[in-house]
Write a structure and sequence with these properties.
The structure is a homotrimer. Chain A is α/β, with parallel strands linked by helices. The first copy, chain A, has 2 domains: about 55-155, Orthogonal Bundle (uronate isomerase, domain 2, chain A), CATH 1.10.2020; about 155-470, Alpha-Beta Barrel (TIM Barrel), CATH 3.20.20. Helices cover about 50% and strands about 5% of the residues of chain A. In chain A, strands 4-5-8-9 form a 4-stranded parallel beta sheet, with helices on one face. In chain A, helix 1 crosses helix 20 (about 450-470) and helix 18 crosses helix 19 (about 425-445). Chains A and B meet through helix 16, helix 17, helix 18, helix 19 and helix 20 of A and helix 4, helix 6, helix 15, strand 7 and helix 18 of B.
Chain lengths: ~475, ~475, ~475
């Protein structure tokens, strides 16, 4: 077991993630070179706009890179680390001590997507040359801290350095979007940062604070809560507010993709009972399914792209949830179904011009079976890039293999980094570009597409596709 | 984006679809050479027998290659083309204008199975040297039209040129099979063209015209409709009619693989109520499940191979369905289950000698989990070749990988092209042979089978297997 | 078809199962060399302890290698062989005649996991140089028989030769474990052989002999059957008996992973009615689900590792089951669900220190979707190695690809051979080590982990991991 504790050099292989076969790698290398330095289009993610609006230096490595990254803290937790020891959920922790815990456990990340992203962050963003370990923890903490204190590591400087052409945040419908306003009004900031309307908690009567949330919504918009039409109007008004602040999409994270189109009287009746907390779980699902259809209707009215992320059981462990809050690493996927669930929505709106519905899944089985076939027929449906646990090199390869033969390259969403880990944004897009280059190179090597066509495709899916699908 | 509009040379790589690794490719090349020129055995497909019986020249490229190919028109539709603009469902369209639409959109097919088939058709069947594009559309249309007007492109000439040893059509039970009769009686035609009994609409009380269809069946066979035994006898008689015309199999396209064995009194009672349109959807499923068991029983009596294609939600979009009819590109897969669903059928007939049941799926998850295990035990069960969306190089590779370690190579059905696209039949079998050669070559390169054994296997699965499984 | 009958040389490629790409293979070769000769840790399997306790010579090739191996007999059966003809289920059969049947059908195994294991057994364990065939059957039978009659092929000699560091058996809770006792008390035997507590039949009211089995259990422990607390105490006592004989784990083969935590009054009431055979199938599932939670509670009390193997429909064919008994080749997988099913159990015990729950699946879709995410959060959950139909080279590769990016290498169980085929144990571990070497080599070749780290990982997952996860 020598070496597990020994510091090892941290170097990024310039050919990393490209196929091992030399002939294919040579093609992949050329394709990757077409897009390696293209600007980053990030139409869905979780970086707070305030970071850019305030442009304050980041506090320390732990609070920036460790505590909020539930990909990282969850695997530490699995290896026996208390989530409190790495500052999850706002736990009070000594930043340096937490960082040591992480560095000591660095070997558990070998082979994971997170390891690849973090190595990129350390080596490329910070210029660090040693891998994390018990022996390097303090030096690494110091080096990162020192860098973070410099102007070059302030949020806006990194935003520029990362060549981010557009960055979407994810926001509560009642958010005043002050960060976005300040950025828009700041003549010294030239980047594009846009909010995303994320209304889940206001649409699902089974959500823990639904009755409070809809009451706050009604109140904010000056309406009585107990009126379904008013509820819909309030939602539409909040969407308009988001659009005024630059939003191009509304994001829906739902337990499943169930949709249904109730008649208005029934929907209104369910809603009124939901406001009083009277719905059974089956009825709550009905209203939630209906509200997705209403959201699609609003998307057609106001043009917001609709993105759908179903199939996660959030808060799998109640004790962890109560102590550390949501997004603390125990959201676990379940099987997803799109064909039957989305039919009511697509019957109504699937053929409407300029309606864009992007389908994400963490259940890979849906790619070849449901999502590619749907996107290969409905002009409104786009194949969401691999998401969450699937946002990793092998999974990206499986994704491309699963969808391409049915739907080609033109029906994708473009890459989505979906991250709050601001410093890893270049790493994530780099991974996606390398994987796409490798996939295309194999198709070239197998005589399935010409090298010239592959060069066009990789630029197209990297740059044009996310702009067009997200109406940027 | 230069090049997207530029005409590019269309050339087929002689090594296309073979593995990129040079050592593995060399083995694959030799294995492919064993079968490249073997005759085509096509035991399941949709080419109309009348084409061969009439032997008239094909009308034009659009009506032959574009409008009826729902793989192609669906992706055009997804890219924003009106199905009417490419002549779907008998839409009245200018053939040349439709062809231009297709050629302009050719880039959306890059990487799809359809692109590979069409390139083969253009390059190999027609000898065309330029890829479709806006700039080449008219010249391509003219070149194809000119070729189609020649005797060499009449159906029978192509049938011979393609070296088709046997070609199965798919037919309604009440079809008089005149095309088949005329071919059989024509001393100048020496090919083997055989019908396939496809009784879905007569077996599923939930099918849209069930009551009319069973009435027509009863009428055709001179029986009252309201008699279950008579209904079974009518079906058996129609099967006998098909067998007399050369049929070797009965094909069943069902929403799911559900089977159940009701007692006769219950089945008869359900049937009588089904004839009156009185069944609930649950009851309709019961009767459909029972009728699959009856079909198995008849297969044991009359020897017809039973093929099962479950798991497609047909007509996902009602508006499209009403305007363009069935098979217009919006049939979408759903999850499939075989283990529990087929148990009642296999309990009764799974061990019966000479009963052949071929299981197809578009839900890939069933390959390793259910189909290979079933076919690895029941002598009656065969693993259907990848079908529909899965009939493509990467999917074929995943299929072989999923089933071989459990069931070897001996339990497969042989390749099934399942196509109405007559000119693409050689392309489809060529793809399957290349993919099998590549898969076997990898096993040879990995020391898992000997090169000598691989040479035997590829000939066996290409030529003997479909003949034996389909009792040809 | 020449060659199908011709004897061919049987030689094992020293690079078998390593990736074909020369650069990757060179890395894989070095990694494999790190572990090729490491001792075998086998924490779950089905070899009877009596074989080692008695240390009698094995009877003949058929009874040792053919009749009890349902991987082999099932594929023979599918190819048309009567299970009785190869001695399944104790069928009276001439060993040599049965062996001939197997050798004649040897080609059907090409490409299967079984072929690889058997080739290893023939070539490595016996030093045979010719493949099975009609022509070699008798000579092979004679050569194997002659070897088996020698002392070098007695169970203990093979145990030593195979370098088995620990071998777990699987045993009925009421088993006296005499074989284990005799081995422990035998000063001439130095190996570690340990029982495994397998209580399925006592926990599932839907099991065929449940009422008899719980009556026998109660009787053996001197309690009335009709007392839930007593039933739990009896189970705990039998576990203690196993632990006294060296057991480290309790194994649970269940139709699905359903768990539920009933209150004690309800559980006791269900149990009392179960004892009288009064439960509906839904109620039986409730009690079974509750008993899994009770088993977890006992595991926390007594430290036994809990292994879970859900998702098999056993005895798919009643006729075969009645004639040949269980494990006769017709156990067929079904879809598996872990996220929702295990939540009640994990809510209670998922965070308990030193609780180990190892999840196995034959539904591959659960690897990336559910098992890796669960094991990547809960410190108690480990990813079971590919099992049963998935215990094969391609499937192992898919498994590693599916779980590694989410959970790394540290959350696995280590390899489990799960076999009664004693002579194939080295073959199975050899396959796993080669596949892991190939997988790691690809990650090295793709610049994802360093070669030094890969060397550590392969030793870790081969040797330390199974010892630690199974508390050996």
């Amino acid at each position: 077991m020598r070496g597990a504790m020994a510091p090892t050099a941290l170097t990024l292989d310039p050919d990393r993630l490209l196929p091992a076969d030399p002939g294919t790698r040579e093609i992949a290398r050329e394709l990757f070179a077409q897009v390696e330095h293209l600007p980053i289009v990030s139409p869905h993610g979780h970086v707070p706009a305030e970071w850019l609006a305030d442009d304050e230096p980041f506090a320390d490595p732990t609070n920036l890179l460790l505590s909020p990254d539930h990909y990282v803290t969850r695997l530490l937790h699995a290896s026996g680390v208390d989530l409190a020891a790495v500052g999850v959920g706002g736990s009070d922790v000594d930043a340096r001590a937490a960082w040591r815990v992480f560095c000591e456990r660095w070997p558990v990340f070998a082979g994971t997507a997170s390891a690849g992203w973090l190595e990129h962050v350390f080596a490329e963003v910070f210029g660090i040359a040693e891998a994390p370990s018990a022996g390097t923890a303090d030096a690494l903490f110091d080096a990162l801290s020192a860098a973070l204190a410099t102007d070059a590591f302030r949020p806006r400087a990194l935003f520029d350095r990362f060549r981010i052409a557009a960055l979407a945040t994810t926001d509560d419908p009642l958010d005043a979007l002050d960060g976005h306003r300040r950025l828009a009004e700041d003549p010294s900031f030239h980047g594009r940062v846009l909010p995303t309307f994320r209304p889940d908690r206001y649409l699902d009567p089974a959500a823990p604070a639904f009755t409070d949330d809809v009451a706050r919504l009604a109140d904010a918009q000056g309406r009585p809560v107990d009126d379904f039409r008013g509820y819909l109007e309030s939602l539409a008004e909040r969407r308009a507010h988001f659009i005024a602040r630059g939003a191009v999409s509304a994001d829906h994270g739902v337990p499943d993709a169930y949709t249904t189109a109730l008649d208005e009287v029934d929907a209104a009746s369910l809603y009124r009972r939901a406001v009083r907390g009277e719905l059974s779980s089956a009825e709550a699902r009905e209203l939630r399914g209906h509200m997705l259809v209403e959201m699609a209707r609003m998307s057609i009215d106001d043009g917001l792209v609709m993105t759908l992320h179903p199939g996660v059981l959030r808060g799998h462990n109640t004790a962890t949830h109560e102590t550390f809050g949501p997004d603390s690493g125990h959201d676990i996927p379940v099987a997803a179904e799109f064909t039957r669930n989305l039919r009511p929505l697509l019957e109504r709106f699937g053929l409407v011009k300029d309606f864009h519905l992007v389908l994400f899944t963490i259940d890979e089985t849906a790619y070849s079976r449901e999502i590619a076939p749907l996107a290969g027929f409905y002009p409104s449906v786009f194949i969401g890039a691999p998401w969450w646990f699937l946002d990793a090199p092998d999974a990206i390869g499986r994704f491309r293999s699963a969808v391409t033969e049915t739907a080609g390259f033109s029906r994708g969403s473009g890459f989505i980094d979906d991250t709050r880990a601001f410093l890893s944004i270049p790493a994530r897009h780099d991974v996606a570009r390398r994987c796409d280059a490798g996939f295309l190179a194999r198709y070239v090597a197998e005589g399935r597409i010409t090298r010239e066509r592959a060069r066009e495709i990789i630029v197209d899916i990297t740059d044009r596709q996310p702009r067009e699908v997200f109406k940027l």
